[in-house]
Write a structure and sequence with these properties.
The chain has about 240 residues and is mostly helical. Among the domains are: about 80 residues, Serine Threonine Protein Phosphatase 5, Tetratricopeptide repeat (Alpha Horseshoe), CATH 1.25.40.10; about 55 residues, no CATH class. Helices cover about 65% and strands about 0% of the residues. It contains 14 helices and no strands. Helix 10 packs across helix 11.
Length: about 240
């Protein structure tokens, strides 16, 4: 039975009664789902001294607490236990990204992809890091690959897992415009329109790019797009 099904089935049972029914890892995951990160850390550490997966989850719990130094140490311990563990390598990359060490983050994401070449979330992280370095072409290329692997990759957000995803970016107006290009280029027109609206609401002023971008050729014929063109960018 998957963790999601277990959590649903236990939702109505008091926590003290749930814990004996679960494995140590599942108890830690339940604490994570409840955002009880300290309890999750104690549970994972007590039951997984030689487990790369457990140490990776310890890192994620520290990450959620904002303790990046402790998170990095836990992720690196997971990698030491399993040098090919893509999730932990990716998560070290997310620490570098949070510290704005984008070149190092990109290096870790590429390393992780050698061991998990079909990971949409790692391609998403790689695209975000390239965006942070100002390389829009590589952002689009990696985001497009991520969508090919998982059409819902950008809509997911789970704390119960082993792989972190970067979401924070600067210049959100430009970022959402580029996201709209990615979605339009892969035929996800409704999401493209949503991101175009976000871009305009966040102050994107270069409306000529909406008329010129080849990815929006089909969208430009829709009433929704025409309505967006009447919006005035928000003054930031």
């Amino acid at each position: 039975m998957s963790l999601a099904r277990i959590l649903i089935s236990l939702a109505a049972i008091p926590l003290f009664a749930q814990l004996p029914l679960l494995t140590p890892e599942q108890r830690g995951d339940l604490y994570m789902a409840r955002k009880q990160y300290r309890e999750a850390i104690d549970t994972y550490r007590a039951n997984g001294q030689n487990s790369a997966v457990m140490w990776d989850k310890v890192g994620i719990a520290y990450h959620q607490l904002g303790d990046l130094n402790a998170a990095r140490k836990a992720y690196e311990r997971a990698v030491k236990l399993d040098k090919k563990y893509a999730d932990a390598i990716n998560n070290v990359g997310t620490i570098f990204y949070a510290e704005k060490k984008y070149r190092s983050a990109i290096s870790r994401y590429n390393q992780a992809l050698r061991y998990a070449p079909d990971s949409a979330s790692i391609y998403s992280n790689l695209g975000t890091a390239w965006y942070a370095r100002g390389n829009i072409d590589l952002m689009v290329r990696n985001y497009t690959k991520a969508l090919e692997l998982d059409p819902e990759v950008f809509e997911k957000n789970s704390l119960v897992g082993t792989r972190m995803m970067d979401r924070g970016v600067t210049d959100k107006a430009r970022y959402h415009f580029e996201m709209a290009r990615v979605f339009a280029g892969t035929g996800k027109n409704e999401l493209a329109l949503q991101y175009l609206r976000k871009a305009l609401e966040e102050g994107f002023k270069e409306k000529d790019k909406l008329q010129q971008a080849k990815e929006f050729a089909t969208l430009r014929e829709t009433q929704e797009f025409k309505d967006l063109m009447t919006l005035e960018p928000r003054v930031l």
